[in-house]
Amino acid sequence: MPHTMEWNVHLDLVEDEGTTKARATLDTGTATVTGRGVAMRAPGDRDVPEIGDEFAAGRALRDLGEQLLHTAEHDVAAVGAAPEPRRSPMYGWPL
Known about the structure:
Blueprint: E1 8-16, E2 19-27, E3 32-40, H1 49-78
């Protein structure tokens, strides 16, 4: 039986004096999950706000993804099944 859902993610970015903060909010229609990320420019780095945005947003989305994986693993255990071990390497390095 097909199952189709639409989840929406809203990403807020705020930069202030070399520090960029990101908040990624997922709305599933029944729950809201928020991931957070921060990027800080080193004192000697050029001021390129887009780079801070990319790092902070990526970290917020990674945080959001990790929360979703933990929730799914908890839900699988709650129905009496064991979660499948992760097979894909994180960040390009084998586990």
